[in-house]
Amino acid sequence: MSFTLMRRQLLLPKRAGHVTQVRHHAPIAGPPRFPMSPGKKLILGGGSLLVMMIIPFWALFQIPRWSKLHNGIVEEEESAPAEGDHPPPTKDEKN
């Protein structure tokens, strides 16, 4: 490059900073551009729902059981009534 061309380049006023675009291959945000099968949609949608909503509710309802377990309290099991026990007879309103 000749001296005059270099001098001209150096004396030109600076322009505003040039912004280079970095991402050319995919959008920064938005839905994926590849098609998703219904199974993938179910796993991605239902999986996040399971993790965010169902598991925390299940955990909240298990706290009493976990508390008894860690404090050494024996859980009370519901026992079925013995076969010899009969419910008391109902009174007839006619008598």
From TrEMBL:
Comp. bias intervals (Basic and acidic residues): 83-95
Segments for region (Disordered): 74-95
Keywords, alphabetical: Membrane, Transmembrane, Transmembrane helix
Residue ranges of the TM segments: 42-61
Protein name: Uncharacterized protein
